[in-house]
Amino acid sequence: MFFSMKFKLAGFLRGLMMISWLIPLTVTALLFKFMMGSNAGIFNQMLMSANLIDNPIGWLSSPEIALWSVIIANIWVGIPFNMLLLSTGLSSLPQDVYESASLDGANWFQKLFYITLPLLRPVIMVVLMLGFIYTFKVFDIVYVMTGVGPINSTEVLSTLAFRYSFTDFQFNLGAATANILFVILLLISLVYLRMIKKDEVI
User: Fold this and answer.
1) Most CB within 10 Å of its CB: which of 21, 95, 103, 147?
2) pLDDT tens figures, 162-189
């Protein structure tokens, strides 16, 4: 909602936000690997400078934290695309509805929960489904940042299919894993299409 507002630096800030989405995933993964991968990384340095931690955190070396580190990098990549879709959806909402609500005495929160979110529901569903599908099949960030380690704690279906096929040369297991990934994403897509069809009927 902030980026859909019209102010002097709105265009510049929207463009700045898109940088993380435009950078190749391999480059992004390497950046986060360097920022998180050592005791001298910027993440540990900032937290220690702010006295939030006493000892460096093993972002990529701890099995309990490594997956969360990958999730943080993936969120950073995905936010600009979601912001672009949502701000586009916000700009297409009819303004006369808001004017009528203002005349009726509706405040900002009432407009948000009773007008904006219901009208934006189709766009929110698209963002959620695309985000789920993209995250479910993510490979580059995991493989470059952690190499599915430590102790396979960041292993996902896409990296498992790759390992079976091109490291262990068990092509049957690799194909089976890839097919499982395909079936899961297909089911999610069918659920999404059914929800969209129900909205069109309503």
Assistant:
1) 21
2) 999 999 999 999 999 999 999 998 998 8
Query: Quick check: is 93 in a domain?
Result: yes
> Residue 5: inside a domain, yes or no?
no
Q: Which two tokens stand for residue 108?
A: 């900002």
CB 181 within 8 A of CB 138: no
DSSP 86: H
Residue 190 lies in a domain: no
Predicted TM-score (pTM) of this structure: 0.84
Whole-angstrom distance, CA of residue 180 vs CA of residue 161: 10
- Cα Rg of the chain, angstroms: 21
What domain range includes position 62? 11-155
DSSP labels, 158-177? HHHHHHHHHTS--HHHHHHH
* Nearest alpha-carbon partner for 2 in 99, 114, 90: 90
